[in-house]
Write a structure and sequence with these properties.
The structure holds two protein chains of two kinds. By secondary structure, chain A is an alpha/beta fold. Chain A folds into two domains: 237 residues, Rossmann fold (3-Layer(aba) Sandwich); 236 residues, 3-Layer(aba) Sandwich (Rossmann fold). Chain A contains 17 helices and 20 strands. A six-stranded mixed sheet of chain A has the order 6-7-8-3-9-10, with helices on both faces. In chain A, strand 19 and strand 20 form a beta hairpin. The longest helix of chain A has 18 residues. By secondary structure, chain B is mostly helical. Helices cover 74% and strands 2% of the residues of chain B. Chain B has a two-stranded antiparallel ribbon. In chain B, strand 1 and strand 2 form a beta hairpin. In chain B, helix 7 crosses helix 11. The chains are: A alpha/beta, B mainly alpha. Chains A and B meet through helix 3 of A and helix 9 and helix 10 of B.
Chain lengths: 498, 330
């Protein structure tokens, strides 16, 4: 068994007494696509950092390409051909694509001067290996996330990568971009014999691409084996330790009751045209489509963030104008954005402050000062009603896991009693367990009378939580789909159809 | 083609042409050789400073202490020359000033690279400190009888064109500015150190991961800026034929404005030598030539302020338009 690139056995690692990894063993074989799955906080990232040589292990053995390493340093790992592609890609936004691909190599070669022809040749070769097209002279900041990822892969290849580790590579990609990424990965594996360690939450993708799967839970490997031995149910069961069966939200709206939200022929030049639909109280309506189909623009337009050129929005059958976020809030509209980290939360601020930020005006006493007792009261109410797992509401929000952060964003909006909530990618980057809890929360809000618009391209999510799904393409709604009248494959096919 | 016209350099160049036309059509003296040489002479010192500031801004930092370094180097060098080697040639003076500048720059570099302190805070502190130390310990009187080498240098000319009345002189110190621009251009575009400066300004974390020695790059940047500032300060004194400890300090915002007008971004990662040269010319024309069309001196500050607002505002608005245009094309 000399064809293993990485062989870890009996790895232990703890941080300040907290056990992050316990007796972890993992073998990554040459030219195999290996998927590592597990919930947030299960130790996946720690394990990657041990392979990268960023964290020293407490005990256990690390063998790379048949060589045992007592102390593995990042430089050793790179020399052995292990390349980690982090979620932020470590690219330079201000430099060109070509320079980003070639820079590390030039640097590693100890060059003092830049030979631009050489830089270009290096980049061209790397791109040719991927068989994709990228504009070499464009700045990286102009590239889409998917292209940035390809640039990061190209960069890794130029450093003689034999194992490429990708951390959550598909979380910001559209269906079509995921296809392209998978094609590139398979090609590199077949022609170059390059192994991949693929860390992901998205179980159907894992099942599609993986040849070997390792499942982690609470810092331990709970199972590992060929991909054929797994299906979604088994993966979910092993990741969470329990079988989770979600019940679909089956609700038939009373068509005679007035619509909570009615949108008529809404148009935004270049983004939306002639979008019309209705949303009633108790309804959860899904909006789906590829990135760029107008799904996010629709949310932005309804929330006053994108100026509407023509069309009319009615709330409670009254025509309203929404020119700004303030207008939207006044009409009882709440919005949970796609990127909660930058748009939805004050990461450095405390959990409690994040929850009350929208309603702080109502927590004043008669002198206009903020009443700490009332604030604490409200914070605790939301933490318990949304079951946010916090050690202390005074800790900064960034200390929470993805699922709990998302709940803080939701709590922030619920505190202002909206009647209509728009959720954009409500479970993006959230692990399976928390995902279910967020879905249950969405359903509960609908049962209590709220109208919800869920924007997502997570097909199982749409089918399980929505009572209707609106499919968007090229800035308009092309079809209304009832979840019980379709299935995952059919909806997936419709989503990527042109 | 349209891409070229949207670039910042083109925008600044067009502004320079328009401003020159407005001034020149109202007062033809603007287009005389004499005035052209005067403008170049006024660009010499600000140009040298700007090359240093450009490097700092590309790396994502800011330096406001360079004027204090300049005047410190000028004044100390003049005193050293007068007291110990009154007959030394001018290049010795430049060497001393460069060495003093380098030393002071290394103090900035030490705090910034070693302790990872914010560059603005460090250089604000050293601006005060260097200037205060100069006035307190080295001298606060204007030196008017400068050593003969400086005096001679001030009167020398690279090109001398006789006019109807008097002569138009192009001062050789313009070569120092040209050399500084050339060196910085080569450094930024053709050395790994230069690319490291851009990389650092683009993403410090990625630069570290890629294997750049970030503290070493910062050491280089702030030391080099110190050296350039020493040379610039000495040049200033040689042109003015005096060493006044109250000169130069106060110029820093004009220099930074010129660099930013030339397209360098305060957030780092972006800026070019050509753009900076254009930015310097624009600021110099605005501050020297508006008087030719009867704009009073106090109003020139307002005009420069306006140019900065428009000059940095327009590209920002354009960028936003471009981003929205991109969204429309989906």
């Amino acid at each position: 068994m000399s064809d293993a690139i990485v062989r870890l056995s009996g790895i232990y690692k703890s941080f300040a007494g907290v056990k992050a990894l316990q007796d972890v063993s993992l073998t990554i074989e040459q030219g195999r696509i290996h998927c590592l799955v597990g919930e947030n906080g299960c130790g996946k990232s720690t394990l990657i950092k041990i392979i990268a040589g960023v964290y020293p292990r407490d005990s256990g053995s690390v063998v790379i390409n048949g060589k045992e390493y007592e102390d593995l340093h990042p430089i050793d790992s790179i020399r052995e051909g292990i390349q980690i592609i982090y979620q932020d890609f470590s690219l330079f936004p201000n430099l060109t694509v070509a320079e980003n691909i070639a820079l590390n190599e030039e640097l590693a070669a100890g060059r003092r001067f830049v030979n631009w022809r050489h830089v270009r040749r290096v980049a061209e070769e790397a791109i040719a290996q991927l068989e994709v097209h990228l504009p070499l002279d464009a700045r990286v900041e102009e590239m889409s996330v998917a292209n940035k990822q390809l640039i990061a892969i190209a960069k890794a290849l130029r450093q003689n990568a034999r194992l490429i580790v990708m951390d959550e590579p598909t979380s910001a990609l559209t269906e079509r971009e995921i296809r392209r990424l998978f094609t590139v990965i398979r090609r590199l594996r077949e022609r170059g014999g390059i192994a991949f360690l693929f860390v992901s939450h998205k179980l159907n993708e894992v099942l599609e691409i993986a040849e070997t799967i390792t499942v982690m839970r609470n810092g331990q490997v709970v199972s590992s084996g060929p991909a054929e031995a797994y299906d979604t149910a088994r993966l979910v069961f092993e990741m969470t330790g329990q079988r989770i069966a979600e019940k679909a939200y089956d609700y038939t709206p009373d068509l005679r009751s007035p619509a909570l939200l009615r949108v008529e022929r809404l148009s935004v030049p270049g983004a939306l045209h002639d979008v019309s639909f209705e949303l009633r109280a108790h309804e959860i309506v899904g909006v789906t489509g590829l990135l760029g189909s107008g799904r996010t623009e629709l949310a932005l337009a309804l929330f006053g963030l994108l100026p509407i050129a023509s069309g009319q929005i009615y709330i409670d059958e009254q025509p309203v104008t929404i020119h700004s976020v303030q207008d939207a809030i006044r009409h009882g509209v709440g919005y949970v954005p796609e990127d909660r980290l930058t748009e939805g939360l004050f990461l450095e601020q405390s959990i409690g402050r994040n929850i009350v930020v929208r309603t702080i005006d109502r927590l004043r006493n008669r002198f206009g000062l903020i009443e700490p007792k009332q604030v604490a009261q409200q914070v605790n109410d939301w933490i318990s009603s949304l079951r946010i797992k916090v050690a202390d509401p005074a800790l900064p929000v960034k200390t929470l896991s993805g699922g709990n952060q998302q709940r803080v964003v939701v709590a922030k909006w619920l505190a202002s009693n909206p009647r209509l909530m728009i959720l954009n990618g409500p479970t993006m980057g959230v692990d399976v367990g928390s995902k279910n809890e967020i879905h249950e929360l969405i359903k509960k809000l609908a049962r209590d009378g709220m109208g919800l618009l869920v924007i997502s391209d997570d097909i199982p999510e749409l089918l399980q939580t929505c009572n209707r799904i609106l499919l968007m393409r090229n800035g308009t709604i092309v079809e209304e789909i009832l979840p019980r009248a379709t299935n995952e494959n059919e909806l997936a096919a419709k989503l990527i159809e042109d | 083609m349209s891409k070229i016209f949207r670039s910042n350099e083109a925008l600044v160049a067009v502004t320079i042409v328009l401003l020159s036309l407005v001034i020149g059509l109202n007062n033809p003296t603007f287009f005389s050789v004499g005035n052209l040489f005067d403008l170049l002479r006024s660009s010499i010192v600000i140009g040298i400073f700007a090359m240093g500031v450009l490097i700092v801004i590309i790396s994502g930092g800011i330096d406001v202490s360079f004027t204090a370094i300049g005047v410190f180097a000028l004044y100390s060098t003049t005193r050293i020359l007068k007291e110990f080697m009154p007959d030394a040639p001018i290049w010795v003076g430049f060497m001393i000033a460069a060495a003093i500048g380098l030393g002071l720059g290394m103090i900035n570099a030490f705090f910034i690279a070693r302790f990872k302190l914010p560059t603005l805070i460090v250089t604000l502190g050293t601006l005060s400190m260097f200037h205060g130390f100069l006035l307190f310990a080295i001298g606060n009187q204007i030196i008017r009888d400068v050593p003969p080498a400086m005096d001679q240098f001030a009167r020398s000319a690279l090109v001398r064109i006789p006019l109807e009345r008097g002569v138009a002189n192009l001062h050789p110190a313009i070569l120092i500015t040209a050399a500084a621009a050339l060196i910085v251009w080569l450094l930024l575009n053709f050395t790994m150190l230069g690319r490291g400066i851009y990389a650092l300004g683009g993403s410090r974390e990625a630069a570290e991961r890629a294997g750049f020695n970030v503290p070493r790059i910062q050491y280089f940047i702030y030391s080099f800026v110190g050296l350039l500032s020493g040379v610039a300060g000495m040049t200033f004194g040689s042109l003015a034929r005096q060493a006044n400890p109250q000169d130069i300090v106060g110029m820093e915002l004009n220099v930074i404005a010129a660099v930013v007008l030339g397209g360098a971004q305060l957030t780092g990662g972006r800026g070019t030598v050509i753009g900076t040269i254009l930015g310097v010319l624009l600021v110099v024309i605005a501050s020297n030539s508006l008087i030719l069309i009867g704009v009073p001196a106090v109003w020139q500050r307002v005009v420069i302020g306006l140019i900065i607002l428009i000059g940095t505002g327009l590209p920002a608005i354009q960028a936003r338009r471009a981003a929205q245009g991109g969204m429309r094309s989906i």
